[in-house]
Amino acid sequence: MPYDPSAFPPFAVTVDLVVLTVRRDALCALVVRRGEQPFQGRWALPGGFVRAEEDLTAAAARELAEETGLCVHDPRSPAPGSGAHLEQLATYGDPKRDPRMRVVSVAHLALAPDLPPPRAGGDANQARWSPVGSLLSQQGGARHEDQYGQLAFDHTRILADGVERARSKIEYSSLATAFCPPEFTVGELRRVYEAVWGVALDPRNFHRKVTGTPGFLVPTGGTTTRQGGRPAQLFRAGGATLLNPPMLRPEV
Amino acid sequence: MPYDPSAFPPFAVTVDLVVLTVRRDALCALVVRRGEQPFQGRWALPGGFVRAEEDLTAAAARELAEETGLCVHDPRSPAPGSGAHLEQLATYGDPKRDPRMRVVSVAHLALAPDLPPPRAGGDANQARWSPVGSLLSQQGGARHEDQYGQLAFDHTRILADGVERARSKIEYSSLATAFCPPEFTVGELRRVYEAVWGVALDPRNFHRKVTGTPGFLVPTGGTTTRQGGRPAQLFRAGGATLLNPPMLRPEV
DNA sequence: GGAATAGTGTCTGTGAGACAGTATGCG
DNA sequence: CGCATACTGTCTCACAGACACTATTCC
Question: Which of A11, A192, A218, B46 measures 20 to 30 Å from B65, CA to CA?
């Protein structure tokens, strides 16, 4: 029965956002506190309904702007500044995932440089960056329960999928630069990899590898000394999106 | 406005299937001829509405069974025989992708061993395997137009995304075995890689690599001579799902 | 000077690709 | 026999990881 418009089950379609950033050497996700039932008072991923004439990506970009003020990179134009990377993650449609009605949520993954603490969006009374380690390690225990608790709905699962996507994607793409400001040093980029993967990397091999991959980094000519020590060259992201050879996660 | 159940835009949700197999050394996709408007008479990917109390994956598995008779592997149980691999691909929700109404389609990717020509499903009056090269190379030209034409809706895009997913996923996972019968030779597995990637591989290096990757292949003890030449050992898929080291596509 | 970070050089093991050579079936 | 396919061995180059060493800043 292909497409009988007169008799199809009614669905609500939402977008949920896994917004990741690196703050103080930790991978953090944006969560908002729910003001309504169900899961009132619990933390959840930001999201909302897709509008009637709105594309899915446009809905995700709109929600991202509402929650963070970030604009989205157009992947085709050389990114000027503090735009974010946005891509579709997966779709979650278990009939019981929302107790009130049938909701299909198209989750998106956004990667952003470190930002000032988020302003509360129009539709969320509280928002914060939380380390993903804390959000994902709630194995039924009571630790930090007041601080975080389990995320609402199936958002823990969605967050885990988003984090895994980010971890694997920075291996073979230049996406790690989306966590960095427009100009950054090799050391800053290395700390991004270390935070996302949760491992320590050899600074010397990392430097040789990352500067030797064509199209990954472009020197801007400037230097900085914001980390202490010898001044470091500043770079911006090069045109390459796929890294060849890839960066390899240790201990696989 | 998170979740106002009384006022959300109504959506129809469907699943579309990219079902791939390898036939006669070519990567082929399952297409069905549409019996209704719009795009009546054009080829399209199989698919249909998600039912009111049905999970997305269950809907995809149901459609797959209706079109091909295939059962889906449970990835957790050791796969006995000719089940298919099924995974979510991506979700397509452009407001204009269906001219009649707002339809969000959750596309799934299925990989199956070579099958007898498909029986027409209950909701499709014709079905066939077509080489993906023919389906994807319709650059506005008129060649093969009677045979294939452009796929209906945005299905060319969905198919292209599914093929690219399959091409990249057999690099770092053992998914290529999903294209093989329960027992197969190294040469047959190599022809799967060659068909999916569209390249020629060195049989000797391939053999050394694939038999040296732990957990990828398990010898069954039997041999076969169905390709002519010296009899080849028969294998079945091992327990490993992630290949380390990965198979690498040449010319990247 | 001492600590910290940036950047370069050198060695070694692993593995991919190229390809010689052997084994075993069919006609 | 020739031919096709299966399988093993060897060589070379590239690169990942380990780590010594130098450079430049701040204290």
Answer: A11
